[in-house]
UniProtKB/TrEMBL annotation:
Protein's UniProt name: Uncharacterized protein
Native source organism of the sequence: Sulfurisoma sediminicola
Entry keyword set: Membrane, Transmembrane, Transmembrane helix
Ranges annotated as spanning the membrane: 34-61, 82-101, 113-131, 138-154, 160-178
Length: 183
């Protein structure tokens, strides 16, 4: 098994753990953790023909981005990130423009820019530093971990965009932007 495959399967197990964590929200906190951990372990158990739930979900929708994984880890640790409505709306709008263009709507393909990763990373780093200077260190930390994981070759894709965001994250950002902060 390659490092990328192990990373992808662990990412799927983390996603399953978060789903069960969310579903068990009303359970006492110690059961909450047991349910999430049990679901993560169960995701690796082969169900049919040697295929586990982690393998099946990875085949279905691919690997989540490193950013998504970081936000899931923060949520599972009981410290959900306060992204804010404005940044969530910006990410949702970016994704809603990015994905149709990347899928061939129009002549410009922004996905190709992700293969020239380091100029894109430098531009995003400048934006993250600006957010950090404005008192929002989350963006700088997210980007730093994303770039470290990308440089280490953990994501299977060689495209930086796949390490930074994914359709699941864009959908969550859209929901957060429309719904606003939770009470």
């Amino acid at each position: 098994m390659t490092v990328q495959a192990a990373f992808g399967l662990a990412a799927q197990a983390l996603l399953v753990a978060w789903i069960f964590w969310t579903l068990a929200a009303r359970a006492p906190s110690h059961f909450h953790r047991i349910i999430a951990a049990g679901a993560a372990v169960a995701a690796f158990i082969p169900i049919a023909d040697g295929v586990s739930a982690a393998m099946a979900s990875r085949a279905l929708w691919g690997d989540p981005s490193v950013t998504t994984l970081q936000l899931l880890v923060l949520a599972l640790a009981g410290r959900p990130a306060n992204v804010g409505r404005g940044p969530a709306a910006a990410l949702a709008l970016f994704g809603l423009v990015f994905y149709p263009l990347a899928l061939g709507l129009g002549d410009f393909d922004p996905y190709r820019l992700g293969y020239a990763a380091w100029p894109v990373a430098a531009a995003l780093g400048a934006a993250a530093l600006l957010a950090w200077r404005r008192g929002q260190p989350l963006w700088l930390w997210l980007l730093a971990v994303d770039l470290a994981a990308f440089a280490a070759g953990l994501p299977e894709s060689d495209n930086l965009w796949d390490a930074l965001f994914d359709p699941l994250l864009v959908a969550a950002a859209l929901i957060a932007a429309v719904r606003g902060p939770r009470r």
